[in-house]
Every structure is written in C-alpha cells, then in structure tokens.
Amino acid sequence: MTQLGIDITSVKRIQALAARRPRALKRLFTENEVRDAGMGRQRWPRLAGRFAAKEALIKAARGLHGGSYQNIELRRRPGAPPQVTVSGLLREWLESKGYVVSISISHEDEFAVAIASLDAGGGEPGVAGLDS
Q1: Nearest 5°: phi and psi at 16?
Q2: pLDDT per position as a tens digit, 88-116
Q3: For residue 63, what are the contacts with CB-CB under 8 A and spacing of at least 6?
Q4: Which of 40, 44, 38, 41 is nearest to 14 (CA)?
Q5: pTM of the model
Q6: Are the C-beta atoms of residues 53 and 28 closer than 8 Å to each other?
Q7: Strand, helix or coil for residue 30
Q8: Are 84 and 73 in contact (CB under 8 A)?
Q9: pLDDT in tens, 51-76
Q10: Other Cβ atoms within 10 Å of 25 Cβ, number
Q11: Exposed (0-12), middle (13-18) or buried (19+): which is 36, by Cβ within 10 Å?
Q12: In what order do the strands lie in the sheet with 72-75?
C-alpha cells in the first residue's frame, strides 16, 4: 500500500513568517536545514521547499503521530533525491508500518512544491530515504 501527500507553499509566506516570528524557524527547521539553506537569494525558496516536504510527509502519514517538525530533517544531496531523516515517535510509527519514505521537492521564486510517498509494498523499511 502506498500513501501520498503533496503540498505547495508560498516562498513569501515562509519569509514573512520568519520576519514576524524569528523563533518560528527554530520550531519548523533543524539547525542543519537552516544552515544548508544558505544566506543567498535561494535561502527562502529552499526553506519553503523543505517546509512543503515536511507538510507532504505529514499528510501522507495522516499526522505527526506525537512527533514535531523537528523530527523531520531534509538534507540536500547534489544529483540525488533529498535525504530524509525522521526521528522520535514519528519514526517509530513509520517503522511499525514498514513504510519506505520517498520525497521530491521543487521550487522557484514564488512557490515550492513537494510530494511524499510512503510505500509499504516491499523492500526493506526505511531504506529509500528514511535515514537513521
């Protein structure tokens, strides 16, 4: 069985949230994610993409299952799909279901979109994108 989640996020919305409530970045993103986003013109599209990916994963999983946004970390891997690290109660729930997580992210100046797939149809749980 495969469960899908998709999300589209406004880049300006993430940028405005950070300007209004700087601590929101710490609630939504890990230190690695904020650092990986850099300080250049791609910072906000990258963060919006990571937010969209987290939302897509949460939708595919039908909730956080006691976890938080900090339990989902997305790291860039040049030439490869994003590396997804899930921890805490959400990871326990995913493993209990035998889900393999896959994420795809795309962004441009105004919007970021992501899709998450949770596949329990074979393979080793956690291998494709659910890093330890």
Answers
A1: -65, -40
A2: 999 999 999 999 999 999 999 899 999 99
A3: none
A4: 44
A5: 0.89
A6: no
A7: coil
A8: yes
A9: 999 999 999 999 999 999 999 999 98
A10: 16
A11: middle
A12: 72-75, 83-86, 130-131
Residue pointed to by tokens 């805490």: 88
Q: Report phi then psi at 97, rounded to 5.
A: -90, -10
Whole-Å CA distances, 15 to 22, 24, 47, 53, 127: 10, 11, 9, 16, 33
Q: Which among 116, 10, 102 has a CA at the least distance from the CA of 53?
A: 116
Residue 132: pLDDT band (50, 70, 90) is very low
The domains of the chain, with CATH numbers, are 2-131 (3.90.470.20)
